[in-house]
Give the backbone structure.
Amino acid sequence: MLYIIPTPIGNLEDITLRALRILKEVSVVLAEDTRTSKRLFDHYGITTPLRSFHAHNEHAVVERVVEELAAGATMALISDAGTPGISDPGFLLSRACHRKGVKVECLPGATAFVPALVASGLPCDTFHFEGFLPHKKGRQTRLKYLSALEHTFILYESPFRLLKCLDELIVHCGAGRQACVARELSKLHEEVVTMSLEELKAHFTKKEVKGEIVVVVGGHDPRPGVSHG
Ligand code: SAM
């Protein structure tokens, strides 16, 4: 059996009682960065052995892990923050478990895009999660596709690329499109700002952009000259 377990995206209190219990009960926890997870484990007195499972070794180790699970081991998969599989390793292992008949259970819990979307004040009934855009090849194609969506879409972005990303969104979606930058969610310097793309650009040009960022963009309104939000 494999448990996929969300861990906090900032505030260490954002982990469920069930997640803590299962992390203590399984035989091994597969972790993206064992040093990061050790800090969480120390905070909660969890002593379960940690084993590396990250983007650079998942292809090499996935089959062995699934063999162990199929032979009866119970393990948990965690990432550095949030839900594994969401812009983090997890998909390959989940798929391999399904193919081998190993039961997979993902606990509900922390992830960055849900609080960003819901706090943004932009329509959240239907949405598209994009995650990170490609840095170079294919970036403009994705932006063009996203700009035509009639529902809200969500990007993960680094603070160093936020201004470039806002510029590109202005080109593709228009300066007046409503959008939100959600920064440092659940942390001391949390900031959630919703305004037009042009106003967001001005707001974040005034200061050094720091921390972790989710960009939420309102959908395209097909009526001439109108943006959602
Ligand atoms: N698995 C994670 C999840 O469930 O959201 C996402 C991991 S991805 C490698 C890291 C990105 O998530 C960051 O670059 C940022 O875009 C977003 N993120 C993570 N923590 C955040 C936070 N506290 N505030 C805002 N964005 C965050």
User: Anything to note?
Assistant: The pocket of S-adenosylmethionine is lined by residues 9-10, 79, 81-83, 86-88, 111-113, 156-158, 182-187, 212-214 (CB under 6 Å).
